[in-house]
Amino acid sequence: MSIWEYANPVKFMRTSGAALPWVVAGAAICTIAGLIWGFLTPQDYKQGATVKIIFLHVPAALMAINIWLMMLVTSLIWLIRRHHVSALAAKAAAPVGAVMTLIALITGAVWGQPMWGTWWEWDPRLTSFLILFLFYLGYMALWEAVENPDSAADLTGVLCLVGSVFALLSRYAVNFWNQGLHQGASLSLAPGERMSAVYRYPLYLTMAGFFLLFLALLLIRTRTEIRRRRLAALLARENRT
């Protein structure tokens, strides 16, 4: 079986329809259980109760970056192989990624105010995340601005290539600029920097929940985009007759 079989809309609709209930159930269980577990953890000796923001901030930030990279892959598939499902999947993922980026920015500000004494700082990672959010908005606006769907997929694919620089920059900004205020990776494996298991395990669970939540929303939205494409084709056919 080839993975390219799922580029067929009929095959995708049948397979995604069967998988969707399981993905939704997994997302609900992992996200709810992870957040409850996380917010019941003890306060940190340095950050106090503020540390619990990581159970929203870290999964959202990771998904914000990885959703854009997923959009890059699906956009490249469209540009190279012209598979419509991949272009529609990229379009479907963008609003979810924008919301994840916004959650990361807001929770970062809530965490930063007591830690840094300010709601916002032009830190390299924060700045690159803000730019990534603007790219998400621009990507969605470009889809709406171009009437021809294939032309819109081409232009947004190119925009996705450019925006990927900031997606990677937001991920590794702390490594590039050590003078930034933002802390290093929360899940670092370096000796002495690894997060305590008290926080690490519920964080893993919320990360799994956010991933499954994204996957569920992606399947739902992609299925909706395929139905819209079919409806538009039917209406165009009726108008010609």
UniProtKB/TrEMBL annotation:
InterPro entries assigned to the protein according to its UniProt record, in alphabetical order: Cyt_c_assembly, Cyt_c_biogenesis_CcmC, Cyt_c_biogenesis_CcsA/CcmC
GO biological process, one term: cytochrome complex assembly
Chain segments annotated as transmembrane: 20-40, 60-80, 92-112, 124-143, 155-174, 201-220
Lineage: Bacteria, Pseudomonadati, Pseudomonadota, Alphaproteobacteria, Rhodobacterales
Membrane topology designation: Multi-pass membrane protein
Name this polypeptide is given: Heme exporter protein C
Subcellular location: Cell inner membrane; Membrane
Record keywords: Cell inner membrane, Cell membrane, Cytochrome c-type biogenesis, Membrane, Transmembrane, Transmembrane helix, Transport
GO cellular component: plasma membrane
One Pfam family it belongs to: Cytochrom_C_asm
Family, as annotated: Belongs to the CcmC/CycZ/HelC family.
Residues covered by the Cytochrome c assembly protein domain: 4-182
Tagged with keyword Cell membrane: yes
Primary role: Required for the export of heme to the periplasm for the biogenesis of c-type cytochromes.
One Gene Ontology MF term: heme binding
